[in-house]
Specification:
CATH topology: Alpha-Beta Plaits
CATH superfamily: ACT domain
Order of helices and strands: EEHEEHE
Mean pLDDT: 88
Distance between the termini: 14 Å
Number of helices: 2
Number of domains: 1
CATH architecture: 2-Layer Sandwich
Length: 84
């Protein structure tokens, strides 16, 4: 199940926040979306509790179109439950 991703932006940073199933492949799939674009996250935070994984990823210097595209792709990852 996926949702539309809400992006929290300031002048130079995009923050992606989502909750997913606590499965080993979810976080690497999310980071791969950035890596294949040659991007390194400025900050990554992931916390697992019970069967849920909460993730925040901050990226600097993305063009708005790229930020929106990455957000939509994150929402389509298998195991992503809710996006904020």
């Amino acid at each position: 199940m996926s949702s539309v991703l809400a992006l929290k932006r300031n002048s130079s940073t995009v923050r992606y926040c989502f909750e997913a199933d606590a499965e080993p492949g979810v976080l690497p799939r999310a980071l791969e979306l950035l890596a294949k674009r040659g991007l390194v996250p400025a900050r990554v935070f992931a916390q697992s509790a019970d069967d849920q994984l909460s993730v925040e990823i901050e990226v600097e210097g993305l063009l708005p179109e790229t930020a929106d595209h990455v957000g939509r792709c994150l929402g389509e990852i298998v195991g992503v439950r809710a996006v904020f």
